[in-house]
Amino acid sequence: GDSVTQTEGPVTLSEGTSLTVNCSYETKQYPTLFWYVQYPGEGPQLLFKVPKANEKGSNRGFEATYNKEATSFHLQKASVQESDSAVYYCALGEGTYQRFGTGTKLQVVP
Amino acid sequence: GGIITQTPKFLIGQEGQKLTLKCQQNFNHDTMYWYRQDSGKGLRLIYYSITENDLQKGDLSEGYDASREKKSSFSLTVTSAQKNEMAVFLCASSPAANTGQLYFGEGSKLTVL
Fold first, then answer.
1. Taking Cα atoms as reference points, which of A23, A19, A52 lies closest to residue A35?
2. Quick one: pLDDT band at residue A96, thresholds 50, 70, 90?
3. Which residues of chain B have pLDDT under 50?
4. Would you list the DSSP string of A47-74?
């Protein structure tokens, strides 16, 4: 069946360093890929989505490229801030619902 | 804009008890979802509803019932709470049952004593 695997957390980084959260997926279809972010006490919210292979999505300095050949959608940011501390979810959407990864908790320290 | 309201925010129950969580959305979205969030397991789909009076099972539907009484509301019932169970239940909606963005509520935290 379909699945999403992402970097296990927690991940702790110093402010100003770069971030990569790996996301790999398995499916026989042609999904839309999503990154969501969840701050404490809130529900997940969309960071960005990419509906087509080989395209890149970006928002708030985060970006990810839909790599169909490698079945990957890794999240990157060049320079993290303390306000980026949150849980990040990779999700695969096809048909009528979205399937989520296990989430990666990021803590950014000053 | 719109909002998703989940009630109650915190729910404490006893083993074997039947417990109901409610979700209201004012986006006028067709599709609504219930996900369960457990630490280390991410979000897992319990039930979803493509339109009013429709119900579809997700991967985790055993032990749960759901009801979509009207377009704006979607309820989830834990049919028999398990001792020491602790989880957050997230309600979400989307404009249509395709690959659109999900809009989530803040969650309902369940603790079973």
1. A23
2. confident
3. none
4. EEEE-STT-EEEETTEEEE-BTTTTB--
- Do residues A93 and B99 make contact, with C-beta atoms less than 8 angstroms apart? yes
Bridge partners, B24 (sequence order): B5, B73
Query: Which residue type sits at A56?
Result: K
Residue A35: closest C-alpha in chain B = B101
The pLDDT, as a whole number, for residue B84 is 81
Q: How much is the pLDDT for B99?
A: 61
For residue B49, give Cα distances in angstroms to B21, B40, B65, B100.
15, 26, 12, 15
Q: Does B33 touch chain A (CB under 8 A)?
A: yes
Q: Is the dihedral of CA B52, B55, B60, B61 positive or negative?
A: positive
CB contact under 8 A, A100 and B35: yes
> Is B97 within 8 Å of chain A by CB?
yes
B98, A96: Cβ pair inside 8 Å? yes
Q: Give CA angle at A101 (B38, B4), nearest 5°.
A: 65
